[in-house]
Amino acid sequence: MYALIDCNSFYASCEKLFRPDLKHKPVVVLSNNDGCVVARSKEAKALGIKMAVPYYQVKDFCAQNEVAVFSSNYALYADMSQRVMSTLESLCPTVEVYSIDEAFLYLADYPVAMQDLDAYANKVKHIVERYTGISVGVGIGQTKTLAKLANYATKQYPATKGICVLTNPRWIRRLMQITDVGEVWGVGKRYKHRLNKMGVDTVYQLAICEPGKIRQHFGVVLERTCLELNGQPCLDIESIEPKKQIISSRSFSTRITSQKDLTEAVCAHASQAAHKLRQQHSLCSVITVFAKNSAFNKSEKYTPISGQYQFATPTADTRELVKAARVVLEKIFKHNIRYAKAGVMLSGICQHDEVQLDLFSTEVNPEVDDKKQALMAVMDELNSKYQADRYQQSVLFIASEGIRETQQWQMSRALLSPCYTTRISDVIVVR
DNA sequence: TCTGGGGTCCTAGGACCC
DNA sequence: TCTGGGGTCCTAGGACCC
Prior knowledge:
Layout: E1 2-7, H1 10-17, E2 27-30, E3 37-40, H2 42-46, H3 55-64, E4 68-70, H4 74-89, E5 95-99, E6 102-106, H5 111-115, H6 117-132, E7 136-141, H7 144-156, E8 163-165, H8 169-177, H9 189-197, H10 203-207, H11 211-218, H12 220-229, E9 246-256, H13 259-279, E10 282-293, E11 305-315, H14 318-332, E12 339-347, E13 350-351, H15 366-385
Parallel strand pairs: 2-4, 7-8
Antiparallel strand pairs: 1-6, 1-7, 2-3, 5-6, 9-12, 10-11, 10-12, 10-13
Helix pairs in contact: 4-6, 11-12, 13-14
The protein binds a DNA duplex (18 and 18 nucleotides) through residues 30-36, 38, 52-57, 59, 72, 98-102, 185-191, 218-222, 243-251, 294-296, 340-341, 343.
């Protein structure tokens, strides 16, 4: 038995937490650069504001309907997420944090839960809400896919009061019959389209398909989904593994054409990615640099550029990664492009205790390595000790990143809320 | 004018091995 | 004139997730 706990309109709920004046008001949260709508409170959904719609298309509508609009405040959401997750960990021994606002609980060998699933679901929901102020839906099923389906039902049907325990076969069947196949976890736009063409429109129709046939047409992944819908577990609770790929990228607030500006952006991303790499005690052997103009603008040709650099020996040294990024960008840069986005990707990742040394390298010298590591450790320590400036620039950085304060193209977050829980000067004062 | 960012897994095909 | 069978590793592309 699995439970899926999913926070309701998570980002929007976080913004409401410290703004009681917004309690029953529509709230939306925008993506980076205030580009798209990425979260809507239930009042905003009721107004018909769609997910992922570009903000400029609904800006006037929001103003007319007194919708409170916020830029993404990632520091706030990450902190609230941690509170929700640690509350869940106090309620179940086996928790898989699946995303910033979702977690699976494994219940089968937890007698407290198994004894009375409804009572347990109720308890989880109310304790999380009491401890964090975030409302959640609790779905329980025989497999992860069924738990997901149950959770979907809690959002879709108010009568569930946020709790759905799928144990009665007749109910499971009924729910599947009235649910679109596109709502199943693992069925995206493409698969939905292809399934529809085969006459499969509801979840139930997918569930009664022959798994072998599904495998033939769609591969082993959807076959597993099909089996899971029938109560046969194919997916386990997963533990947290180091990332196999690390990306740092961002759109610019204005278009960039100069190589100097693009170099600064790319260097900053290389530096950011290097930091993430060290946090998981890894090294990488490949860095990919990429940049592109807007894919939406029909008056200019979509022109993505990218290139790679392979290291002889894996590294997590910011200086080496930034240097490599510069070398790559130098090679791939094209003039007369209005760049809208750039970034880097690190791959060929290994843990630092399992490094494959370069047979021909002349500089395999443990002392040099130790020095590099020590330097990076000091850099990370200083940067965590002293808060970044209001442009998010750390106290210690590589000169080629440039000074953020002077960079016109830095992401815009015009509607940012305070960091209520993570910045001392933003903490609410009660007088 | 204005459209996010960060991940995973699977498959097919090519290069290569014995 | 005739040229096998079985395997691994890597990469790019396609699908999915939040």
